[in-house]
């Protein structure tokens, strides 16, 4: 299909010009405002902090003022690794909890009558039409009197609450496409509810699970507002650390290093998720 | 047998719905609380909405948010539609890397985009942070969303339409204007609405690239949550919820498949 | 309703039509809750202009934001050491004293600050002490002392306060409190002593609820938090908020007997500001006795302005947390900025404090 399409569209001077005109503006924009900053970040991680913050000049008195200092700083001490690890743990917990909460809901909607589904999905999206800060604030109000504020519980609750729809929607999209005939056939063959779920529904929903998990895990890694507003004294995560470097300690090289390492982690995870969730056989 | 499973399932589903709604219901409810500290319910009042509309700082932030969202959404939609078309039709040569360029900002944690743009604006452009920096940042992360929606919509179209147009002698622009655009218009509009919503709601990226005297609603809400938590925050939250809900409902109406298909 | 829509539309058009810095707007970057709305409104009426305020809750935050490119502010209100930093960065515009006749109102002891000899760049505005604010009823019930840092550092007291204490989310301030409690100077950089302070903090940390630069104001007033490490002006605000909301307890604040950090906050003009004329008018306005008194009466901060003294309410003038008596003053220290290398070490220690 792809081959045929591009073969049909190939050739013709108008086509080439169109190709450039259409693809150049967004490409250029993203190269300048996404890729260049990312490369700058990489470069900044090798620089020295400026006297008053920011970055020291890359070249001073004709000599390159670069070093691996920040990387040495980072790897020379387990403390930063600990924060990364803790962030991964929080992200994993959040993803798991989101999965547990989202699955029944997504399944229920997918199994409901067709005419109700759009409304039910809208009812899922509705609470998340609110600003993410408001969702956090809601938890401040709810947890405050209960004395649960400023604790790891509060942080996880906030994370789950904010990211739940990102798990519900991909799961639902996947589950909706399941052919009910499969389940009926299994039932006719004597499979119980749990067996049907375990051997048909669950495996078929794996791509949805992977997609949803990626959509929850990765953003959680970078969050700082939730630990800041809901967290206690021990709940700092990588996002907080990065924010602190740029907006408090004025140590931009260290902030850049942390960002680069986080980026690498995210790219790896995204890669794994894409590989794991890839369609296993030719699907229509 | 099947009925029982469904009942359990629905019970679980309803619990999750409740979990989703109760905290926000509390926010909305307490926007009518007649108490400065908003620690416990005292009485009913609408005065916080009145305070809200008299709050110059808040109105300024709202105006900024609207202005930025409109501009960013428009530009992001234009660029994103182009990107979506490009990704769908041309996959050879340099353009093979386009999907990566377009989709990575969507996948990255926002803080990374925020700090890298901050770095870029300061070190390379020496730009004074302000409206423009926020605008550029918002467009950057919105392009991907629009592109995905448009691409999905394009993928669902029947190729033969374009062939027919070509056979009838239509050039690329004509084909676009009279065949493609009308067909993908719902997706384009949905992309616009999504970009608008994303921009109005954005906190993290705006936090890093906002400048002097330019504050947006989320930033304002953030500083209010940290310092001056009167029910005014609840009031603005409630209104903001109503607005974004309307927009999302509209987007969902216009292109439900495109929105879901992107997952 | 229509009034609102119209106003919103006008604001929108205004934002569209005018460049980033509209005419007759003074851009002020200031501590939150450090300038009363009343004062601002009176100035706006007098100068027929608008004051646009952005807020910060920590000097580090302010310096970092300015470094990160927020360069359009006319006025900022840094604490002493931050003035020093800004001066070394050559970021400040010198004062035009001819436009500041009210400068004569300042008390003698504020005219030659160590960070700005000759008072060429900074005009003192207010003073605060970083101290402990507390829920008087709770602490009396628990029989806890209210005049010592031990309250937030000693487990024997913290046991009764578990989860009810917050400390400042500021590397310098928290370390300074620990240093003062241990009997050292806040400028101490001896690694062994820093280590001692770190262990002191880590020992107390499990009992603290969270690190907070501003949320403690409302937390104290509501009653969720019983002891907070914070700025005296914020404590005053919490006190007033609790009174207004008729809470069944009072918020009080005291300077710990081991000493504390004194902050003198001054107005400085940034080079990037577009309206030095408005900035000078504002400073002169604030230097006027009646206006200067606002910062004490309405904000609860100490006052470097002699002409304000007759206008300050007696209960505020007599509050030792706001106007430290000579005894206390002897034990107060002002912070000075560290070298970048020292800052990085402190930053790493701070990370350790947060993570362990």
Structure description:
The complex is a heterotrimer of chains A (284), B (263) and C (356). By secondary structure, chain A is an all-alpha fold. Helices cover 74% and strands 1% of the residues of chain A. Chain A is built from 13 helices and two strands. Chain B is mainly α and 263 residues long. Helices cover 79% and strands 0% of the residues of chain B. The longest helix of chain B has 34 residues, at 56-89. Chain B starts with a helix and ends with a helix. In chain C, helix 8 (171-182) crosses helix 9 and helix 10 (215-222) packs parallel to helix 11 (232-244). Chain C is globular. Residues 16-22 of chain C have low confidence and may be disordered. Chain C has helices at 2-17, 37-47, 59-67, 80-88, 136-142, 150-153, 155-158, 171-182, 191-204, 215-222, 232-244, 276-287, 289-297, 314-317, 326-331, 340-355, and strands at 25-31, 50-56, 75-76, 92-93, 122-135, 165-167, 208-211, 227-231, 251-254, 260-270, 332-333. Chains in contact: A-B, A-C, B-C. At the B-C interface, helix 3, helix 5 and helix 10 of B face helix 1, strand 1, strand 2 and helix 10 of C.
């Amino acid at each position: 299909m792809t081959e045929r399409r591009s073969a049909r569209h190939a050739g013709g001077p108008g086509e080439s010009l169109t190709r450039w005109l259409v693809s150049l503006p967004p490409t250029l924009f993203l190269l300048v405002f996404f890729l260049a900053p990312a490369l700058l970040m990489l470069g900044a991680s090798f620089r020295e902090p400026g006297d008053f913050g920011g970055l020291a000049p890359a070249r001073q008195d004709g000599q390159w003022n670069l070093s691996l200092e920040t990387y040495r700083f980072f790897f020379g001490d387990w403390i930063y690794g600990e924060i990364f690890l803790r962030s991964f743990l929080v992200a994993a917990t959040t993803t798991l909890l989101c999965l547990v909460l989202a699955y029944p809901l997504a399944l229920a909607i997918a199994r409901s009558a067709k005419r109700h589904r759009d409304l039910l999905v809208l009812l899922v999206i509705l609470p998340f039409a609110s600003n993410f800060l408001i969702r956090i604030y809601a938890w401040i109000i709810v947890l405050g009197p209960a004395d649960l504020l400023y604790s790891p519980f509060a942080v996880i609750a906030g994370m789950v609450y904010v990211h739940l729809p990102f798990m519900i929607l991909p799961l639902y999209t996947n589950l909706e496409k399941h052919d009910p005939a499969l389940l009926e056939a299994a039932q006719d063959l004597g499979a119980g509810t749990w067996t049907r779920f375990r051997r048909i529904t669950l495996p078929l929903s794996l791509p949805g699970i992977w997609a949803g998990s990626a959509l929850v895990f990765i953003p959680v890694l970078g969050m700082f507002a939730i630990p800041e507003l809901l967290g206690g004294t021990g709940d700092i995560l990588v996002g907080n650390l990065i924010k602190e470097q740029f907006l408090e300690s004025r140590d931009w090289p260290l902030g850049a290093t942390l960002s680069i390492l986080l980026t690498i982690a995210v790219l790896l995870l995204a890669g794994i998720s894409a590989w794991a969730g890839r369609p296993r056989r030719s699907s229509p | 047998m099947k009925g029982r499973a469904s009942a359990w399932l629905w019970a679980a589903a309803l619990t999750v719905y409740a979990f989703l709604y109760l905290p926000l219901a509390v926010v909305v409810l307490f926007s009518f609380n007649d108490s400065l500290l908003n620690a416990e319910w005292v009485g009913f009042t609408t005065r916080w909405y009145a305070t809200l509309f008299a709050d110059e700082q808040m109105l300024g932030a709202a105006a900024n948010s609207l202005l930025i969202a409109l501009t960013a959404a428009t530009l992001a939609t234009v660029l994103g539609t182009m990107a979506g078309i490009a990704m769908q039709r041309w996959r050879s040569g340099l353009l093979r890397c386009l999907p990566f360029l377009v989709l990575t900002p969507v996948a990255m944690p926002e803080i990374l985009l925020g700090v890298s743009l901050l770095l870029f604006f300061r070190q390379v452009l020496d730009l004074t942070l302000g409206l423009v920096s926020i605008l550029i940042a918002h467009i950057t992360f919105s392009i991907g969303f629009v592109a995905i929606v448009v691409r999905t919509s394009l993928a669902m179209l029947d190729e033969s339409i374009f062939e027919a147009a070509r056979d009838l002698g239509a050039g690329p622009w004509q084909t676009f204007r009279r065949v493609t655009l009308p067909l993908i218009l719902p997706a384009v509009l949905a992309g616009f609405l999504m970009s608008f919503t994303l921009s109005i709601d954005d906190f993290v990226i705006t936090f890093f690239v906002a400048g002097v005297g330019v504050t947006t609603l989320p930033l304002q809400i953030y500083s209010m949550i940290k310092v001056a938590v009167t029910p005014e925050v609840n009031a603005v939250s409630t209104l903001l919820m109503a607005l974004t809900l309307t927009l999302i409902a509209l987007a969902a109406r216009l292109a439900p498949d495109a929105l879901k298909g992107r997952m | 309703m229509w009034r609102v829509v119209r106003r919103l539309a006008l604001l929108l058009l205004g934002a569209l039509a005018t460049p980033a810095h509209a005419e007759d707007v003074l851009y002020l970057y200031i501590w939150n809750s450090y300038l009363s709305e009343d004062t601002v409104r009176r100035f706006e009426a007098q100068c027929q202009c608008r004051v646009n305020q952005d807020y910060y809750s920590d000097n580090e935050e302010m310096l970092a934001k300015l470094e990160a490119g927020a360069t359009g502010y006319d006025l900022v209100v840094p604490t002493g050491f931050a003035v020093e930093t800004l001066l070394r960065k050559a970021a400040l515009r010198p004062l035009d004293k001819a436009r500041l006749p009210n400068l004569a109102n300042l008390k003698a002891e504020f005219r030659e600050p160590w960070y700005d000899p000759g008072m060429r760049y900074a005009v003192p505005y207010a003073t605060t002490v970083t101290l402990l604010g507390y829920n008087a009823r709770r602490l009396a019930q628990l029989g806890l002392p209210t005049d010592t840092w031990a309250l937030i550092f000693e487990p024997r007291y913290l046991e009764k306060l578990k989860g009810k204490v917050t400390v400042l989310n500021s590397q310098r301030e928290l370390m300074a409190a620990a240093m003062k409690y241990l009997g050292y100077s806040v400028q101490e950089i001896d690694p062994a002593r820093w280590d001692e302070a770190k262990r002191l903090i880590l020992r107390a940390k499990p009992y603290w609820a969270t690190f907070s630069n501003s949320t403690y104001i409302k937390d104290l007033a509501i009653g969720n938090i019983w002891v907070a490490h914070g700025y005296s002006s914020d404590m005053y605000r919490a006190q007033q908020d609790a009174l207004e909301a008729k809470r069944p307890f009072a918020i009080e604040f005291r300077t710990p007997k081991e000493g504390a950090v004194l902050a003198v906050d001054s107005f400085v003009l940034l080079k990037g500001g577009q309206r030095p004329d408005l900035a000078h008018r504002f400073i002169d306005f604030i230097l006027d006795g009646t206006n200067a008194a606002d910062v004490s009466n309405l904000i609860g901060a100490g006052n470097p302005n002699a002409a304000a003294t007759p206008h300050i309410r007696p209960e505020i003038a007599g509050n030792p947390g706001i106007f430290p008596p000579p005894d206390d003053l002897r034990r107060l220290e002002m912070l000075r900025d560290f070298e970048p290398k020292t800052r990085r070490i402190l930053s790493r220690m701070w990370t350790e404090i947060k993570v362990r």
